[in-house]
Amino acid sequence: MINIAFGCITAFLITFLAIPSIIKVAIIKNLIDEPGERKSHKSSIPTLGGLAIFAGVVFSFTFWSAGFDNLMTQYIIAAIIVLFFVGIKDDIVELTARKKFAGQLISAIIIVLFANIRLTSMYGIFGVYEVPYWFSILFSIFTILVIINSYNLIDGIDGLAGGIGTIAAFTFGLWFYNYNEITLCILAFTLFASLLAFLVYNFSPATIFMGDTGSLIVGLILAALTVSFIELSFSSPPYAFPFRSSPAMAVAILIIPLVDTFRVFVVRLLNGKSPFKADRNHLHHQLLDLGMSHRLACVILFGINLFFIFIALVLRDISSLTLLMILVIMAIALSISPFLIRFVIPKSKTYNIKT
Q1: What share of the chain is helix, strand, coil (3-state, %, to 5)?
Q2: Half-sphere exposure for 69 (CA within 13 Å, toward CB)
Q3: Residue 167 and residue 170: Cα distance in Å, rounded?
Q4: Residue 116 lies in a domain
Q5: Based on the structure, what is the number of domains in the chain?
Q6: Do residues 84 and 214 touch, judged by C-beta distance below 8 A?
Q7: N or C: which end of the chain has fewer CB within 10 A?
Q8: 228-233-239 Cα angle (round to 5)
């Protein structure tokens, strides 16, 4: 418990104290994100916040997890470092999508093959349990890549990615504490504390963005925590708080990035566009177009995220497939809600809900 507490304090202080210097250097070196047609901000904002998140998490996790599971720790850190360099280069000179994907793939392979954080079963979904080793490897890598890119795509308005990451990391941290998985618990809570410190500067009006450096690193850590959470929930012996619907619960925890990514891909395909072509069809963009401020849009999406977690928690004793179907139906309603609001409320009335 002491390691967890000091890990949080260390991560928070490192991130909080590092950001002012990073902002100063970014402005001097012109490492800023300029306003644009697809951008939601109106002024130039430094984009290297991920550097502070990286420093806070990596130092605190490495220092305070010493003696628990050194093998897992070293491979997780190695995977994070790979994406750190991918992200920092992309924030400075902009990488091609192919090179970014290559970095993500290398990190996912390190997590799955070396740290051995992988999904070993389908956990009864569609009646399937055991899967071949090769399928376990490929499915785990695919899952990690989906989560990394989903999280990366929601980093579109002040405070959203940081807030969603904070909620997810804190939730996972509580479960790993219950499972007595101290290494993963420290990782989750150091990420939580670092993102909390980052939000002090990033919540609207933001003075710094996390950039790809931050979103890729946070996405990778959340992916590793997600896979570990699902796998541990089915391990033996059972824990004091077993969770047999953990796949569905994992979806609930990451519902905003997963639903938003699926939604924008479908909308782009229906419009005859490439699913990878950037636009303003994300949920947070839709809320802004309804006249909401960054703060209000974030609070609404945070509330929706917490609501999904609450529903999954209440219904945790039903089958994972049933719970997944319930979450999918709710997610569909979430996806189409902006269109319904715009249809029901005249356009002239949707631009008066600033906070």
Answers
A1: 70, 0, 25
A2: 16
A3: 5
A4: yes
A5: 1
A6: no
A7: N
A8: 120
Cα four-point dihedral sign 340, 343, 345, 350? positive
Q: Is 354 contained in some domain?
A: no
Handedness of CA 23, 196, 252, 117 (dihedral sign): positive
In a domain, 252, yes or no: yes
Can you say how many angstroms the Cα of residue 321 is from the centroid of all Cα atoms in its chain?
23
Kindly state the tokens that stand for 160. 């959203």
Burial group, residue 185, by CB count within 10 angstroms (0-12, 13-18, 19+): buried
pTM of the model: 0.90
Task: Show pLDDT as tens, one digit a residue, over the chain (355 residues).
Answer: 788 999 999 999 999 999 999 999 988 888 887 665 555 555 678 888 999 999 999 999 999 987 776 778 899 999 999 999 999 999 888 888 899 999 999 999 999 999 999 998 877 676 777 889 999 999 999 999 999 999 998 887 888 999 999 999 999 999 999 888 899 999 999 999 999 999 999 987 889 999 999 999 999 999 999 999 988 877 655 555 566 678 889 999 999 999 888 888 887 787 777 666 776 778 887 888 777 888 888 999 999 999 999 999 988 888 888 888 999 899 888 877 766 666 665 554 444 444 4
Residue recorded with tokens 């644009």 = 36
Structure tokens, 309: 């977690």
Cβ within 8 Å of residue 343, ≥6 positions away: none
Domain that holds residue 309: 2-349
Structure tokens at 178: 């219950």
